[in-house]
Amino acid sequence: MDAAHVLMTDFEDARRLRVQLEEEPLPAEQRIEWMEKLAKARAAAQASVTTLEQAEALILKV
After folding, report:
1. Residue 61 and residue 24 in contact, taking contact as beta carbons nearer than 8 Å
2. What band does 37 get if pLDDT is binned at 50, 70 and 90?
3. Judging by beta carbons within 10 Å of its beta carbon (0-12, 13-18, 19+), is residue 62 exposed, middle or buried?
4. Which residues make Cβ contacts (< 8 Å) with residue 41, sequence separation at least 6?
């Protein structure tokens, strides 16, 4: 969660800076690249949730 929050904050800072500098949005290729990185991070987070749910189920069985 902390890593996701840092990532979101970094992106918001970058967006705000681009607006202040009156720069164009990132090219589509670069946005796609960042979305792919985000998808990998999301998959890792979802895998962690699954593992935590399995641990929870085991704890409740004990």
Report:
1. no
2. confident
3. exposed
4. 3, 4, 7
